Amino acid sequence: MSDIVRFDQTARRSRALTHNGLVYLTGQVADDKGADIATQATQVLAKIDDILAQAGTDRSRLLTAQVWLADMADFAAFNAVWDAWVIPGQTPTRCCGQVALADPAYKVEIVTTAAL
């Protein structure tokens, strides 16, 4: 049986966990809720990089990403940041949809899974 390792755990969630050679990240949001979509996306992707590094992997090992945008009008601006961040030839599967996020000031939330 493989151990489950939890990162930054609270009573409600773990920011990430590893199990069976995979790392699962909870939804990541920006620190600056007043920022535009490009800044929020950059902050979220930096958080993903940081958490993946803590777990012992990196974005080259991403398997899947769920991107939630508060407004699909931000789709093109988000994609410009995303396209500069992902590694060509190592892009994960991805879906992107519009959702009502927990705080209306958030413009994007991203959930990812990566291989260790």
Description:
Helix 1 packs parallel to helix 2. This protein is of the alpha+beta class and 116 residues long. Strand 2 and strand 3 form a beta hairpin. It has a six-stranded mixed sheet with strand order 1-2-3-6-4-5, with helices on one face. The protein contains two helices and six strands; from the N terminus they run βββαβαββ. The mean pLDDT is 96.
List unreliable stretches of 5+ residues. none
What's the tally of helices?
A: 2
The multimeric state of the shown protein is single chain
Structural class: alpha+beta
| Ends apart, CA distance between termini | 17 Å
- Strand tally is 6
- Proportion of residues in β-strands: 25-35%
Mean of pLDDT: 96
Main-sheet strand order equals 1-2-3-6-4-5
Shape: globular
SSE pattern: EEEHEHEE
Helicity level, as a percent range? 25-40%
Biggest beta sheet attributes: 6 strands, mixed
The whole-angstrom Rg is 14 Å
Descriptors for this entry?
116 residues; alpha+beta; globular
Strands, helices and their partners?
Elements: E1 5-9, E2 14-19, E3 22-25, H1 37-55, E4 62-69, H2 75-85, E5 93-98, E6 108-115
Parallel strand pairs: 4-5
Antiparallel strand pairs: 1-2, 2-3, 3-6, 4-6
Helix pairs in contact: 1-2
What would you say about this model in short?
By secondary structure, the protein is an alpha+beta fold. It contains two helices and six strands.
